[in-house]
């Protein structure tokens, strides 16, 4: 065996192997690699889109949350104002009711005072008649002198 023949045979076998690899094995490998690269690029692009969409959604949710907090504080403020109004109305109603009760009590007191005065006038006129009767030692006719006794009671 000749070393040259072996080297040439090995070179030819190697060349056939390279040609076979380039013709039949390399294109599917390149196609698979390119497909995989495209999938990876698409995945990275989708991830970037998802990240930007997430940022947009986070900003939107933050603004929505801020709006909700603002509306809640407005509602609370309105509720506090309404509570203050209700309290003021209740105080005004209570004061008016108290004034009405006081006025009624004063009117009742005035009526009682007038009744007491009338009762005292009647008692004083009776005492005056009794005193005059004792002084004069004779009986005074109360029916006959009712006009005079009414005037006397009115003066007292």
TrEMBL record:
It is found in: Cell membrane; Endomembrane system. It comes from the Bacteria. This is ATP synthase subunit b. The chain crosses the membrane at residues 6-26. The lineage of its organism: Bacteria, Pseudomonadati, Pseudomonadota, Betaproteobacteria, Nitrosomonadales. Pfam families: ATP-synt_B. InterPro entries: ATP_synth_B-like_membr_sf, ATP_synth_b/b'su_bac/chlpt, ATP_synth_F0_bsu_bac, ATP_synthase_B_chain. Keywords: ATP synthesis, Cell inner membrane, Cell membrane, CF(0), Hydrogen ion transport, Ion transport, Membrane, Transmembrane, Transmembrane helix, Transport. F-type ATPases have 2 components, F(1) - the catalytic core - and F(0) - the membrane proton channel. F(1) has five subunits: alpha(3), beta(3), gamma(1), delta(1), epsilon(1). F(0) has four main subunits: a(1), b(2) and c(10-14). The alpha and beta chains form an alternating ring which encloses part of the gamma chain. F(1) is attached to F(0) by a central stalk formed by the gamma and epsilon chains, while a peripheral stalk is formed by the delta and b chains. F-type ATPases have 2 components, F(1) - the catalytic core - and F(0) - the membrane proton channel. F(1) has five subunits: alpha(3), beta(3), gamma(1), delta(1), epsilon(1). F(0) has three main subunits: a(1), b(2) and c(10-14). The alpha and beta chains form an alternating ring which encloses part of the gamma chain. F(1) is attached to F(0) by a central stalk formed by the gamma and epsilon chains, while a peripheral stalk is formed by the delta and b chains. Its main location: membrane. Signal peptide: none annotated. F(1)F(0) ATP synthase produces ATP from ADP in the presence of a proton or sodium gradient. F-type ATPases consist of two structural domains, F(1) containing the extramembraneous catalytic core and F(0) containing the membrane proton channel, linked together by a central stalk and a peripheral stalk. During catalysis, ATP synthesis in the catalytic domain of F(1) is coupled via a rotary mechanism of the central stalk subunits to proton translocation. Component of the F(0) channel, it forms part of the peripheral stalk, linking F(1) to F(0). The b'-subunit is a diverged and duplicated form of b found in plants and photosynthetic bacteria. GO terms for molecular function: proton-transporting ATP synthase activity, rotational mechanism; proton-transporting ATPase activity, rotational mechanism. It is a single-pass membrane protein. GO terms for cellular component: endomembrane system; plasma membrane; proton-transporting ATP synthase complex.
